[in-house]
Amino acid sequence: MSKEINGVMMQYFEWYLNCNKNLWNTIAKRAIDISKCGITSIWLPPAYKGTGGENEVGYGVYDLYDLGEFDQKGTISTKYGTRDEYLASIEALQQQGINVYADIVLNHKMGADKLQTIKAVKCDWENRVQENGEEETVDVWTKFTFPGRNHKYSDFEWNWTHFSGIDYNSRTKEHALYKLKNKTWQMNVDHEHGNFDYLMGADLDFDNQEVVEECIKWGKWYLETTGVNGLRFDAVKHIDAGFMKNFVREMRKVSSKELFCVGEYWNANINDIKQYIDITEGEMSLFDVPLHYNFYHASHSNGEYDMSKILDNTLLKENWGKAVTFVDNHDTQPGQALESWIPDWFKEIAYSIILLRREGYPCVFYGDYYGIEHDGIEPMEKLKTLLVLRKNKAYGEQIDYFDDYNIVGFTRLGDKEHKRSGLAVIMSDKYEGCKRMYVGKEFSGKKFIDALGHRSEEIEIDEEGFGVFFVSGGSASVYIRL
Predict the structure, then answer these.
(1) Which of 264, 288, 348, 359 is catalytic?
(2) Annotated catalytic residue 63
(3) Would you state the CATH architecture of domain 114-204?
């Protein structure tokens, strides 16, 4: 699916966000400012009621139909606000030309209303296809009746037949991986741990046709109710790929908008990422997890990372039309399960790559833009500058200079549609240095300066269109016409 020219997505939350059930209202008030800074689309956090009530970030899904409307899990509002406030925030963003992407969590449910007694067999956590022992009787939280909603929007009630596994036996108080009676793990999933169908909670069984039909019914209801422009799918590597492909196709049939879809397939192996795109026949983009880990390893290598290979084995390089690039997110921030935080000194390098290159659809993290109060992390100082540079300067042909172990760069030659566009990016993970790069003969005799303010040199472009651009050690500089 196409994306906005030079579009930028923002993930508008972080894990520890203290929003006092007021995020939707805050977003609505900030819509104009968000648009002005160059953000063209926003990924909002999961909007439905979770098992944690007003403290639920959104991934412990309880009731997909409760967008902050019913008294369930001790609250009417979600962590972020009420249903009416959510819908109003979507409208406010769209009125400013900002596309809204909803976070969709279909892998599991949590916080069931009743226990059920069923037979199940334990499986090994490290090798899920290995069963440990015989079937036993377990008491499991698998009955979802949603009494607070009282069948509004859907009279579907979930029971153990709709799930394949769970991780807690109330009878024995034991935490273990239980595969429920007569169930098999989905095969069209990631192969880590032998089979990575199970992630958490009560795991949805997509071999059950009732589950498939209810999910599609809900998806259509959600699109009609919210009018969002796109969907971000959580944990797709744990969900049957065939179901995901068909779900996206069904959603596009009923959407009144071009429906952009991106999946979170958390795997650093580019071959697994490419295989998933093939299996789902390119129905959705994927977050470029391999690129994130390249950033992570480079930023923790004390200048011993080969920067000429920073883009190797990434979706950005292998299939950039399906790449949603990012530096960090709510899972990689400090204290989270996938913690792999990119340190401040490398952030400018990483964002210069995802925001100023021609390829990929970049996603800016809330925690980088606004900071993370929980951990005393300040907003990234030059991020707004890089967003403005993308909006105004990052156009035209691209020439790469990934030809050195430590100092690399690229140029954008600009185009006629964007006045005074074009730029030169140079980055170093270790030494101060320089690089001769081509910006175009039309700039001959013109001077370029570092828009990030790290270097004071005025670089004059020679008659052949080249300039010698400087960079400080462990830094990035972005040169634009004076």
Answers:
(1) 264
(2) no
(3) Beta Barrel (2.40)
